[in-house]
Amino acid sequence: MSRAHQDTTINLPFHALQQWHSALQQAFAHSEGPDALAWLASAISQLVAVESMLISHERKGHPPQLLYQQGIPARYHEAVLERYYAAGYLLDPFCLAVEKGLAQGFYHLEDIAPDHFFDSDYYKAYYLGTGCSEDSYFIVDLGDGSKLSLSLFQGCSGARLGLAQLHLLQAVEPMVRELLMRFARHGLAQAPQANGNVQAAFDSFGCGVLTERERQVAQMVLQGHSVKSTAHELGISPETVRMHRKNLYLKLAINSQSELFAQFISWLRQALAPA
Fold first, then answer.
1. In the chain, where do the E strands start and end?
2. Helix, strand or coil, per DSSP, at residue 69
3. Cα(177)–Cα(45) distance, rounded to whole angstroms?
4. Which of 3, 59, 136, 218 is 20 to 30 A away from residue 208, measured at CA?
5. Residues facing residue 153 across a β-bridge
6. What pLDDT, in 10s, does the model give residues 22-31?
7. Where in 26-113 does DSSP place strands (E)?
8. Which residues pair with 105 in a beta bridge?
9. What is the CATH number of the domain that holds 141?
10. Which of 187, 221, 243 is the last residue of a domain?
């Protein structure tokens, strides 16, 4: 965690501890039932005041599938529950990390995001633009490239989770993992499977215009990587990254990252539009 200046003391009042244990007991009692995810979300809410949650099924090469949501304000339903799951997830640092094999556990956005992510247009559109400033994330590995994720969002109230709260969530990760595993064994089989057309559309952005290396640099810029981070990830020099970025901007007739992001979103809409 990167908030070393904050208080890390975990101090749960006795009544709060009782409520958490009671809610956890109920979550385990209902872990094989149809409302298992709602009971899990309720238990977490007794431990930490989380504004909203999303639970998703994530498979390598496929769009994430929403299984449960709680607390997403109605005015953000289209952006979060439609645009994000349709295509926006392609630039999400957690989804990208999962695609690269992120180990199961509990993570905070600051642990995962590229170095310039918080200045990116994606962060402004899909985080700040939907009332969220930070995200924490439980991930459970189901095997065969399949995972369950539980995202905890903060931001609408202006309050952020303190380091002590993040440590508390990290401490209960084994119990959250067990509850999600039980749900997966009994409640995931009925979930419909999505196709990988969106990933293919993302991979083809700039085809016919940009070279393969320019497309790689464009994707890194869209994900929120700096020149230095892009150079490290691609194994090339910062000067080469700048050259590729300059060339791809010229070829796409754009002048900024914001224009690149707008063109990328436009490309996805066209690529995914019904025939």
1. 52-59, 65-70, 105-108, 134-143, 146-154
2. strand
3. 16
4. 59
5. 52, 135
6. 999 999 999 9
7. 52-59, 65-70, 105-108
8. 139
9. 3.30.450.80
10. 187
How far is Cα 109 from Cα 94, in angstroms, rounded to an integer? 8
Q: Are residues 40 and 156 in the same domain?
A: yes
Whether 136 and 231 share a structural domain: no
In a domain? residue 81: yes
- Tell me the backbone φ, ψ of residue 268, rounded to 5 degrees: -60, -45
Is residue 42 located within the same domain as residue 92? yes
| CA atoms within 13 Å, Cβ hemisphere of 60 | 12
pTM higher than the cut 0.70: yes
- φ/ψ of residue 245, rounded to 5: -65, -45
- Strand runs labelled E in 114-241: 134-143, 146-154
252, part of any domain = yes
* Domain interval for residue 224: 204-272
Separation of alpha carbons 176 and 68, rounded Å: 15
CA nearest neighbour of 246 among 270, 267, 217, 224? 217
